[in-house]
Design a protein that fits this description.
This protein is α+β, with helices and mostly antiparallel strands. It has 12 helices and 16 strands. Strand 4 and strand 5 form a beta hairpin. The relative contact order is 0.15.
């Protein structure tokens, strides 16, 4: 979550614009066999995934809230030399000086991931599945017993840190579940998985019908958690090919190092396509961060304050003019460049956008992942894609014009091959030129953002096939207009500031 705390430099009333984020086991003696086949699949009810951030304007005499500390990521294991504490590696080993023998230095073994974070939640899900009363269900009993066996096998694999086996078992349960859309037909196995976790089924003339299932915000917590473990498992298996191995959760060095290695394969191996790099970043983002609303939280994450807050004042032209600091704004106001409106004051914008790795690890954990929001996902996507040679073009903040509903944050990136992509949480779309043009324009980016906004807010196209987003403000920040080594990440903060200033910037021309 990004929180803009706008306070007057004279210590008067504080205006707060809060940009909250867009977003025991029983044992079976035998391994699960192949699924028992039954009849035709039945459609499942609605899915709703609102991975959003909430923007709220408050006007009160409030001091900025305290920031949250950061959890420490697991560090790679480092081997030490044999011998007592502090002992080094023998200079000559068992050889005398002058003898010819290469010194054999011990190598650091690859890192091996342990069980996922919050494993007890997976154990609780398994316990629920094992206690499910198969005899009283109208659903096919063979499939339900098979589902219980698979749950046990998946849990056992996670306990051992056996992620390849865990991924096989999650696939048998029908995971991953769909990530976007509010009307999706699930397979019979996905319905059975939901059923043993508590979603009711009732008999009807055609066999049975499963009750409503929702994922994400306000959804079924057991399914949200199970999806989290499956996403984390898939990520760890993807990254396990790294020469140095990977811990769970991955460290910053491991995640960024994986993207660099992916983008620069060994000589003789083909380079990945832009689509493949985007998918890799998507998998890592999905496997690392769980949106706070899907984690059962009703409050937005609050990150540490960003350094060097900017300030603005209202000019006689009716525009909000911003400056690098409150002192710079006051100096400009005193000089009348531009003239300050009557009664206007210099206002400090104290923002709270994620701008370092510790921000994405500071909000707690659930079901194998860190808890975050759409902005922490944009931060992670930015770090991963830029390490793979992509260029950040900017970030786009989306808010309801009346600030009455949830908002969202998008990232815009250019691949080394020249293609342009927009990210929304862990999802992504390629921006394609319209009307036969060769190059992508700002209008093309705007169209892609509109389409994504329609998906996020479940806006149905009108009779012309158009998505009506007239109820929203779009505030884009161009990375090219920022300076310094962290300009790409800083565009997230800047997009939110531009929302306060009621301005937007052109990302491409």
């Amino acid at each position: 979550m990004t929180s803009i705390v706008s306070s007057t430099s004279s210590g008067g009333a504080t205006a707060v614009a809060q940009d909250a984020a867009h977003e025991a086991d029983a044992t079976h003696p035998h391994a699960p066999t192949e699924p028992w086949h039954d009849g035709a699949e039945h459609p499942l009810a609605k899915l709703a995934l609102n991975d959003l951030h909430q923007a709220v304007q408050l006007f009160a005499a409030l001091a900025p809230g305290a920031g949250h500390g950061a959890d420490t990521l697991l560090a790679p294991h480092t081997a030490r030399a044999d011998g007592p504490p502090g002992a080094g590696i023998p200079l000559y080993g068992g050889q005398k000086p002058g003898t010819v023998q290469a010194q054999q230095l011990p190598s650091t073994p690859p890192v091996k991931p342990g069980p996922p974070m919050e494993l007890q939640q997976m154990e609780a899900l398994n316990q629920t599945a094992q206690k499910f009363g198969v005899a009283g269900s109208p659903m096919e009993h063979g499939r339900l017993k098979y589902t219980q066996q698979v749950f046990q096998a998946a849990t056992d694999a996670l306990k051992k840190g056996d992620y390849p086996e865990a991924e096989k078992q999650f696939a048998k349960l029908g995971l991953p579940f769909p990530a976007l859309g509010d009307k999706t037909d699930l397979t019979v196995q996905q319905q059975a998985t939901a059923h043993v976790l508590g979603v009711r089924a009732k008999a009807d003339g055609n066999g049975w019908t499963l009750g409503e299932v929702r994922l994400g915000r306000g959804g079924h917590q057991g399914l949200n958690d199970l999806s989290g473990y499956a996403a984390n498992t898939a990520m760890i298996n993807r990254m396990a090919s790294m020469p140095g191995g990977v811990s769970n959760p991955p460290t910053e060095a491991q995640a960024t190092g994986y993207m660099r290695e992916l983008a620069h394969p060994a000589k003789g191996k083909p380079a990945p396509t832009a689509q493949q790099v985007m998918q890799a970043a998507s998998d890592i983002t999905r496997g690392t961060i769980m949106h706070y609303s899907a984690a059962g939280r009703s409050t937005d994450p609050v990150y540490d304050r960003n350094p060097n807050p900017r300030a603005f004042y209202l000019g006689t032209d009716g525009q909000r003019h911003d400056f690098a600091s409150a002192a710079a704004a006051q100096k400009a106001a005193d000089a009348g460049t531009p003239p300050k409106a009557r009664g206007a004051q210099v206002t400090i914008m104290e923002s709270r956008s994620p701008d370092q790795w510790s921000d994405i690890t500071s909000q707690g954990q659930r079901a194998g992942r860190y808890i975050g929001d759409c902005e922490s996902k944009v931060y992670l996507q930015t770090r991963l894609l830029t390490e793979a040679g992509f260029t950040s073009l900017g970030s786009v903040d989306v808010q309801h014009k009346d600030r009455s509903g949830p908002g969202h944050m998008f990232g815009v990136f250019k691949a080394p091959d020249g293609t342009i992509w927009v990210t929304s949480n862990e999802e992504f779309k390629q921006v394609r030129p319209n009307y036969g043009r060769k190059d992508v324009t700002q209008a093309d980016i705007d169209a892609t953002v509109r389409d994504f906004t329609g998906e996020v807010y479940h806006i149905e196209p009108n009779y012309k096939g158009e998505i009506d987003v007239s109820a929203f403000d779009f505030n884009a920040a161009s990375t090219a207009k920022l300076s310094g080594p962290n300009a790409a990440v800083d565009s997230i903060r800047r997009a939110t500031e531009l929302g306060v200033l009621h301005r937007t910037e052109t990302i491409v021309r």
